[in-house]
From TrEMBL:
Domain spans labelled Alpha-D-phosphohexomutase alpha/beta/alpha: 16-153, 186-288, 297-409
Assigned EC number: 5.4.2.2
Cofactor: Mg(2+)
Keywords, comma-separated and alphabetical: Isomerase, Magnesium, Metal-binding, Phosphoprotein
GO cellular component: cytosol
Superkingdom per UniProt: Bacteria
A Pfam family per the record: PGM_PMM_I
Catalysed reaction equations from the record: alpha-D-glucose 1-phosphate = alpha-D-glucose 6-phosphate
One of the GO biological process terms: carbohydrate metabolic process
Record-given protein name: phosphoglucomutase (alpha-D-glucose-1,6-bisphosphate-dependent)
Family: Belongs to the phosphohexose mutase family.
Length: 545
C-alpha cells in the first residue's frame, strides 16, 4: 500500500455486472457516491498490479470522461501501479488503447466509453477493462469483478489536486509516474506499418475523393492526422472532427440511421468516391461508395477475399472468425481460401484466444466491427484504411468491387431488426418460449419458410475449452436462410431484442434487389417463429440496420 493512499469506507452496489462490453449505465448512475470508485477498486482487487505494472487510461471524450479519469488516476496510484499512460485530454480510442497496451508492454488498460450510445449529462457512460494482450477482459475476469463489487467495503485513493491532462509529459503521485501521452502517435505508426500508405496517397492525390465522418467522437484527431496529414487528403476531408462531450447531441453510431449526414452526402449530387464513419470510441466502421452502402458482414468477407493486396496480410490468412449473428458471407470466402472460419458469441472478447493462438488473422461482427491480429479490439480506422488499400490496388469503384464479390461468392442479404427498450421480463419470456419450441421446429413450415435446424448457440473455446452457454437462438431454413435471436448486452434501460435475418442468393440476376424486399419472407417467418410482437407487446422493430 502506497504511503500516499487514503482508505475510504464504502458500501456495495448490486447492479455492477459488466455486459457485452464493460459496465454501461446512465451518467447519473455513475455519479452516485462511490459508484465508479467501487467498480475500479473491485477491478484492482481482482487484477492487482505486479511490481513495475503499467496501466493505460483513456476514453472517448464523452461527458464525465475527465472527471472519471482524474479519479482512476488517483486510485491507480494508491493501488501501486508504477506507471500510468494517459491519453492527452483524456482521449484514447478503444483500438488505440489496445495498441498502446501491446506496444508499451502494459498489464492492461481502462477505457471510459459507452461506444455508440449517446452522451451528455443524461446520456450513457461506461467503463471497460482490457487485459495485457490488449483485448477485452474475458468473462472469467469480469465475473470475478462483479462478485467483488457485491462485497466491497473500502477503496484506496491518493488525495491531491487534479492533474493537467492537456500537457504531455510526466508527473508523479507518490511512487507512481503519470505520463500524459499523444493519443494518436503510436496508433498512426501502427497503421503505417500495416498498409501501403504510398499507394493510398497516390490514389487520393490522383483525384479519388474521400470523406470521413468522425461524428464528433473520438476518431476526429486520429482521422485528421492519418487522412489529412499522412495521406495528403484535403483539409475538411474529416468532418465533425472535434470530439464533443455530447457528440453534438447525436448518436455516434455509424449506420444508415444515425450517420444520416454522411449518407446524404454519399447519395447526393457530386458525391465523393468513398465515405466512411466511426463510432463513439473508434472501434466501429461504416463503409460507403458513391450511392452505395457496404453491409458490414459483406465488408468482412470482402476484406478476407482481398487481404493479399495489403502488405501486412500478403502472406495469407491463418483463419477467420465471425460472431454468431454475422452473415455467413465470410465462411464462403474461407472455404475457397482453404482456411477455417470460426463462429463465436457476440462481443470482441471471444476473438482474443483465437488471435493469440494464431488460429485467425481477421475477424468481425455484423454490428459494424472488423479487426485483425494487429490489436485485440475491433478497429474503425483500420477497416477504412484496409478499404482504401484495396481500392488503390484494384483501381475500381466500391460498387464494382462489391458486386464482383457477390457474383463470385453469392450475395448474403442481411438485415437486423432491433426491438429496443422493451420490457425485460417479456424479452426473457420470448427467449424462453423459443427455447421450449426449438425441438419441434425442424421440418415445420412458417410463413412459407421450411425450417431445417433450430438450436441454441453454445460456444466452446477451442483454445482454453471454456464454455459460453445461451448465446443466441439460431434457426436455418431451406434455401440458405437463417434467423438469429438474442438479447443485447450493452443497453442501459429495459431490454433489447435483436433479430438477425440472412439469406444467400446465388443468382447474380437477383443481386440488385432491395435488402428489405429480399428478406421480407425471412422477416415474416422470424416474427412468427418468435411470436415477437405479441409477446413483447409492440407494433414493430424500432431500428432496422
Ligand atoms: C453490441 C453489438 C456487438 C458488439 C457490442 C460492443 O452488443 O451487437 O456486436 O460487440 O455492441 O460494441 P449487444 O450485446 O448490444 O448486441 V461497441 O462498439 O458498443 O464496444
Ligand atoms: Co464502439
Amino acid at each position: 500500500m502506497d504511503a500516499f493512499a487514503t482508505e475510504i469506507e464504502t458500501t456495495p452496489y448490486e447492479d455492477q455486472r459488466p455486459g457485452t462490453s464493460g459496465l454501461r449505465k446512465k451518467v447519473p448512475v455513475f455519479r452516485q457516491p462511490n459508484y465508479l470508485e467501487n467498480f475500479v477498486q473491485s477491478l484492482f482487487d481482482v487484477v492487482p498490479p505486479a511490481p513495475g505494472a503499467v496501466l493505460v487510461i483513456g476514453g472517448d471524450g464523452r461527458y464525465h470522461n475527465r472527471t472519471a479519469i482524474q479519479t482512476i488516476i488517483r486510485m491507480a496510484a494508491a493501488n501501486g501501479f508504477s506507471r500510468l499512460l494517459v491519453g492527452r485530454g483524456g482521449i484514447l480510442s478503444t483500438p488505440a488503447v489496445s495498441a498502446l497496451i501491446r506496444r508499451r508492454g502494459a498489464c492492461g488498460g481502462v477505457v471510459l466509453s459507452a461506444s455508440h450510445n449517446p452522451g451528455g449529462p443524461d446520456g450513457d457512460f461506461g467503463i471497460k477493462y482490457n487485459v495485457e494482450n490488449g483485448g477485452p477482459a474475458p468473462s472469467e475476469v469480469t465475473d470475478k469483478v462483479y462478485d467483488r463489487t457485491r462485497e466491497i467495503r473500502r477503496y484506496s485513493i491518493a488525495p491531491g489536486p487534479d492533474l493537467d491532462l492537456d500537457r504531455e509529459g510526466e508527473t508523479r503521485i507518490g511512487d507512481t509516474v503519470v505520463e500524459i501521452v499523444d493519443p494518436v502517435a503510436d496508433y498512426a505508426a501502427l497503421m503505417q506499418e500495416i498498409f501501403d500508405f504510398d499507394a493510398i496517397a497516390r490514389l487520393i492525390g490522383g483525384g479519388f475523393r474521400i470523406t470521413f465522418d468522425a461524428m464528433h467522437a473520438v476518431t476526429g484527431p486520429y482521422a485528421r492526422t492519418i487522412f489529412e496529414g499522412m495521406l495528403g487528403a484535403p483539409a475538411g476531408t474529416v468532418r465533425n472532427s472535434e470530439p464533443l462531450p455530447d457528440f453534438g447531441g447525436h448518436h455516434p453510431d455509424p449506420n444508415l440511421v444515425h450517420a444520416e449526414e454522411l449518407v446524404r452526402t454519399m447519395y447526393g449530387a457530386d458525391a465523393p468516391d468513398f465515405g466512411a464513419a466511426s463510432d463513439g470510441d473508434g472501434d466501429r466502421n461504416m463503409i460507403m461508395g458513391r450511392r452505395f452502402f457496404v453491409n458490414p458482414s459483406d465488408s468482412l468477407a470482402l476484406l478476407a477475399a482481398n487481404a493479399h493486396l495489403v502488405p501486412a496480410y500478403g502472406a495469407g490468412l491463418k483463419g477467420v472468425a465471425r460472431s454468431l449473428p454475422t452473415s455467413r458471407a465470410v465462411d464462403v470466402v474461407a472455404e475457397r481460401l482453404g482456411i477455417r472460419a470460426y463462429e463465436t458469441p457476440t462481443g470482441w472478447k471471444y476473438f482474443g484466444n483465437l488471435l493469440d493462438a494464431g488460429l485467425i488473422t481477421l475477424c468481425g461482427e455484423e454490428s459494424f466491427g472488423t479487426g485483425s491480429n494487429h490489436i485485440r479490439e475491433k478497429d474503425g480506422l483500420w477497416a477504412v484504411l484496409f478499404w482504401l488499400n484495396i481500392l488503390a490496388a484494384r483501381g475500381e469503384s466500391v460498387e464494382t468491387i462489391v458486386k464482383d464479390h457477390w457474383s463470385t461468392y453469392g450475395r448474403h442479404f442481411f438485415m437486423r431488426h432491433d426491438y429496443e427498450e422493451v420490457d425485460a421480463q417479456k424479452a426473457a419470456e420470448l427467449m424462453a418460449g423459443l427455447r421450449e419450441r426449438l425441438a419441434a421446429l425442424p421440418g415445420s413450415s412458417v410463413a412459407g419458410e421450411v425450417i431445417e435446424t433450430a438450436d441454441e448457440f453454445e460456444y466452446r473455446d477451442p483454445v482454453d475449452g471454456s464454455v459460453a452457454r445461451q448465446q443466441g437462438i439460431r434457426v436455418t431454413t431451406r434455401g440458405g436462410g437463417r434467423i438469429v435471436y438474442r438479447l443485447s448486452g450493452t443497453g442501459t434501460s429495459g431490454a433489447t431484442l435483436r433479430m438477425y435475418l440472412e439469406r444467400l442468393e446465388r443468382d447474380p440476376a437477383k443481386h440488385d434487389e432491395e435488402t428489405a424486399a429480399a428478406l421480407a419472407g425471412m422477416a415474416e417467418a422470424g416474427r412468427a417463429i418468435g411470436d415477437v410482437e405479441r409477446v413483447l407487446g409492440v407494433a414493430g422493430p424500432t431500428t432496422i440496420t
